[in-house]
Design brief:
Distance between the termini: 45 Å
Number of domains: 2
Structural class: alpha+beta
Length: 402
């Protein structure tokens, strides 16, 4: 039998260096990204900023026709063998109709509840770039002095809210004169805050906090000039919130894909704001057994505070990549995020832990350095029983009475 049949995952060795993360760079980059509106479908501006950061790190990159950014981190291999994928798009709104009252009916871009949009300040983008307006998402009954207790009993949903434009409009004709039309994007203002205790409160931390952590990890590698065992691709997608993030742009020879996204902090979840989380399963199914455990092993070896978690109502860039047919191991790393797609909050410690784990992962070899070099191979070479054993059930389970 081939010797590789009993191959174990490569042991975590001291060859990976736990490099210092520039926290000031991480937080300032995060604040910069948060202040740039980028709902799915309107992401060109934020990608210009992301590209500026990637260029400053000396990485070769390009953009696909639709605008996904692809950068290469050269390693000892000749070809790309792993990818780290993160998204720059966010949830948002779009104008559905202009009401006779001059208010706007809106629909969500991405999956989020109108419950958390009520009271949000927004920016309304028209096709005329010089005509940008502000507004507020309000319940249909927003005045307690007029509606009394009815404001507490009205329903929750997108048909129960409207956008009030901060302009003197009282009719659909007035709104048309502003240049506002059906199909215009409405961005939820992020309003980011960094507290003395290290918490970051803002809309759209999903996934701009993950993106800032990725850039901080790349900066740590760049500043230390450490060699990478495997050439890696850094992919920034623009449609994750609507389900088609990493459907294209990945190199054909990617053997491992790590999606970076939020880790849900809520009752019943294992994730915490000050930790990095390793996803074991989401609504699309389990993540790769070996790669997920490899990441957890790296965290333990380097003293990086990490936890494993399972997510029910969740998917990431890994899902569309696999659905598009990529033949790669896939895993999920996340920063702890409270009230995801709502009134979001993360902690700098969790973002630093995420960046640290990315740094050591990108220095490491592939999960199975030999087997994972190719898309396929013979059964005799497949690492199986010694790394994922499953003893057969007993043939006879009959229990005889005494």
């Amino acid at each position: 039998m081939n010797a590789r049949t009993n191959a174990q995952p490569p042991a975590t060795t001291p060859r990976e260096v736990d490099l210092p993360v520039d926290v000031e760079y991480l937080t300032s980059t995060l604040m910069e990204l948060l202040r740039i509106p980028s709902p799915s479908g309107r992401t060109d501006a934020v990608m210009q900023v992301v590209g500026t950061h990637v260029d400053a790190l000396g990485l070769s990159f390009d953009l696909t026709r639709r605008g996904i950014l692809r950068a290469t981190l050269p390693g000892a291999t000749d070809a790309v063998k792993r990818a780290v994928v993160v998204h720059a798009d966010t949830i948002g709104l779009m104008v559905k109709q202009v009401k006779d009252s001059g208010r706007l009916e809106v629909v969500p871009v991405g999956s989020h509840s109108a419950r958390f949009a009520e009271g949000a300040h927004v920016t309304i983008f028209t096709d005329d770039f010089d005509r940008v307006y502000t507004g507020t998402v309000l319940p249909l009954k927003s005045s307690g002095h007029t509606f009394g207790d009815e404001i507490d009993t009205q329903g929750v949903g997108w048909d129960q809210v409207e956008v009030r434009i901060d302009e003197p409009v009282e009719s659909a004709r007035d709104v048309a004169a502003l240049g506002v039309e059906v199909g215009d994007f409405v961005a939820l203002d992020a309003a980011p805050q960094l507290t003395r205790g290290g918490y970051v409160k803002s809309r759209h931390l999903d996934d701009k906090a993950g993106l800032a952590a990725c850039l901080a990890a790349l900066k740590a590698l760049h500043d230390a000039d450490v060699p990478l065992a495997v050439t890696a691709q850094f992919l920034v997608t623009i449609g994750e919130e609507v389900g088609f993030g990493a459907t294209h742009g990945l190199a054909p020879d990617v053997a491992e894909l790590v999606a970076v996204d939020n880790a849900v902090v809520a009752a019943g979840q294992n994730s915490r704001e000050e930790l990095v989380s390793i996803g074991m399963l989401d609504m699309t199914g389990p993540f790769d057994y070996h790669l997920s455990r490899r990441l957890h092993s790296l965290a333990r070896a380097h003293g990086i505070p990490a936890v494993r978690d399972v997510y029910r109502h969740y998917r990431s860039d890994a899902a569309p990549a696999l659905e598009a047919g990529i033949e790669a191991r896939h895993a999920l790393l996340g920063f702890g995020l409270d009230s995801s797609h709502g009134h979001e909050r993360a902690h700098v410690d969790g973002l630093v832990a995420l960046a640290r784990l990315l740094v050591v992962y990108l220095q490491s070899g592939l999960t199975f350095d030999d087997w994972d070099q190719a898309e396929a191979g013979p059964l005799a070479d497949f690492p199986s029983t010694s790394v994922q054993p499953a003893e057969p059930e007993p043939v006879d389970r009959t229990v005889l009475p005494d």
